[in-house]
Amino acid sequence: METNKYLSVKALTKYLKYKFDQDPYLRRVFVTGELSNVKHHTNGHLYFALKDGHSVIRGVMFKSSAGKLLFKPEEGQKVLIQGRISIFEMNGQYQIYADDIQIDGIGQLFEQLEKDKKELAEKGYFDSEHKKPIPKYPHHIVIVSSATSAAVKDMITTFERRYPLVRLTLIDTLVQGSGSMQDVIANLKKADSLGADVILLARGGGSIEDLWTFNEKDVAMAVFNTRTPVVTGVGHETDTTLVDYISDLRAPTPTAAAELTVPFHHDIVEKLRETELKLTRNQLQAIQYRKQALLSLSGYYKFKTPALLYDQQTERLMMQKDKLTGNFNRHFREHAYTLNQMKSSIGHLSPMPAINNGRNQLAGLSEDLNDAMRMVNQNLRQKLFNRLEILDSLSPSAVLKRGYSYTVKDGGVVKNAGDLREGEMITSHFFKGNIISKVIEVNEDE
Amino acid sequence: MNEQKTETFEEKMKRLDEIVQELEKEEVPLEKSLELYKQGVELSRECERILKDAELKVETLNKDTDNEK
């Protein structure tokens, strides 16, 4: 039969598969390449293509192995794959059946990273007590990044939009590849010396290898040792590098770092307006409050009715007065009573009866004395009378009565005619009346 | 450091904050509160003006070591 020469597709494929499977070189291959068309199937298997600049090979990793992977295989990752090459009979395609996939070269780096991270965490370098506060309104910001990168352009735009007040110093820095670690460390030091308010350490998105500089322990320590607060924005949201743990503030992206570092000027203006309103309101309140206080003070009932201020005292005064009068009267009565008592008791001791008695006796005695005196007086008067009668008969008037007269010159009785001279005036007194005569002749003898 | 002669925006904002806090105390005498109020409003206007007039200043320090841009 001619047709016996022809193999079925199935038979050929089986043959080819047999050839692959029994080849010792293909049973265990080590191949390196870049992942593409990565599909995580819902059944847990992983499908992918592995390529380099020249060729592509399809690949599959079954659920049992894929579940043990230490990373999530993604498009573009360079990987190291262990597996076997075989043919999938249904489509006749040869493919690699992967037992293990590792990120090319980076695996060990990750291991180192985990070790470093653990060490720094244990030393407490990630603790919040080491996080320096970011000034609320930074004045001077230093960006450590690649000057020409899109990340830096985005950051500048962000500052322009949010807070143009700031002064930016951009330190052009190598952020990937060889020498970048040293450059970042040196520039962090330089940035720290500028006396700025904040340092932004930033780099746009890239592969994990591109970002690896920011996973270096030395770089992390340089961030830790800056005196200026450091904000990090490295890669995309999903990338968290070692510097992000140790920095004072971690932002998911460079743009976010710029946003987190400065306030939004509209917010400040808003806040200023609010503050002004608040100040005004407070001030008005303060004035109102004092007005009210003044009003209530001046309306105080005692100010309105001043008598109320001294009413109490007046009343007290009156009470005291009453009390005083009462006390006085009581004392007075007490004393008056005592006085009366004393008076009546002293009445018995009065000398008046004795005095009256004496007085009566005296009156009697003086009566007797008067009677006696009157009798003596009578006797004496009688005797005097008798003597006067005798005396009377001897008096000049009795002589004159008998016709005698006497002469007086110059007040003196003239006893001798010789005392007179012719022409002298003399007065002669008679029993009744007198005459005034002029001496005509003096006869001494006779 | 090139510090400005006058106080920085941050210092002004801080002072404004302090004034607000001071004024919120009950026992501020009226005369003082009026003075503080005046200062506060002036500061607030000044800060707003600064924000309005601000222009971003960017200075680039190039790599002093090797390498192209």
From TrEMBL, chain A:
Could you tell me where this protein is found in the cell? Cytoplasm
Domain called OB-fold nucleic acid binding: residue spans:
7-102
Any Pfam family the entry gives: tRNA_anti_2
Q: What is its main location?
A: cytoplasm
GO MF assignments: exodeoxyribonuclease VII activity
Q: Which UniProt keywords apply?
A: Cytoplasm, Exonuclease, Hydrolase, Nuclease
Per the UniProt entry, the signal peptide is none
Subunit: Heterooligomer composed of large and small subunits.
To which protein family does this belong? Belongs to the XseA family.
Q: Which protein is depicted?
A: Exodeoxyribonuclease 7 large subunit
To which species is this protein native? Salinicoccus halitifaciens
Q: Which gene encodes it?
A: xseA
From TrEMBL, chain B:
Q: Name one GO biological process term.
A: DNA catabolic process
Which reaction is this enzyme known to catalyze? Exonucleolytic cleavage in either 5'- to 3'- or 3'- to 5'-direction to yield nucleoside 5'-phosphates
Stated name of the protein: Exodeoxyribonuclease 7 small subunit
Protein's job: Bidirectionally degrades single-stranded DNA into large acid-insoluble oligonucleotides, which are then degraded further into small acid-soluble oligonucleotides.
- The broad enzyme category this protein falls into is hydrolase
- The UniProt entry's coiled-coil ranges are 6-64
PANTHER family in the record: EXODEOXYRIBONUCLEASE 7 SMALL SUBUNIT
InterPro entries, per this entry? Exonuc_VII_S (IPR003761), Exonuc_VII_ssu_sf (IPR037004)
Keyword vocabulary terms for this entry: Coiled coil, Cytoplasm, Exonuclease, Hydrolase, Nuclease
Give me the Gene Ontology terms describing cellular component. Answer: cytosol; exodeoxyribonuclease VII complex
This protein's assembly is summarised as:
Heterooligomer composed of large and small subunits.
